[in-house]
Amino acid sequence: MKVLLALSLALAALGARAQPAEVPGWFADSFLEFPQDVREAARDGKRLMLYFWQEGCPYCKRFVETTLAERAIEERTRRHFVAVALDLFGAREVEWVDGRRMSEKALAQALNVTATPTLLFLDEKGGIALRLVGYVPPERFTAALEEARRR
Description:
By secondary structure, the chain is of the alpha+beta class. The chain has 6 helices and 6 strands. The protein has helices at about 1-15, 35-45, 60-65, 70-80, 105-110, 140-150, and strands spanning about 45-55, 80-85, 95, 100-105, 120, 130-135.
């Protein structure tokens, strides 16, 4: 019995997706098909928020540990946006809103994302409503969330 339990726990640990420190655990799991993500978010009265990060980025870590860690900010973000994380140098395939398929890295280049963190808020049609570059403190991010909802 103990061996079976240990084996089950080991298999569960292998199957669990490790979330880097630069990405909050509450971000959405996405197939990275943004035409569909935009439609589904709009159907639910939300917009898509793309968060470009990179491993070891001190500003990303600070943004996650200070700004996104505030309960009110997390709740407001989750209520109005679907948050998706993209690795600035990542190789996962994404489908952009116009149907083009490319890597995360190629998408970042196509969107002129050169620094992390960068946040892109998409409107209901997939257009970029707001872009934030660099560390954003809590009070400024709260105002940006409202701006991204209005645009």
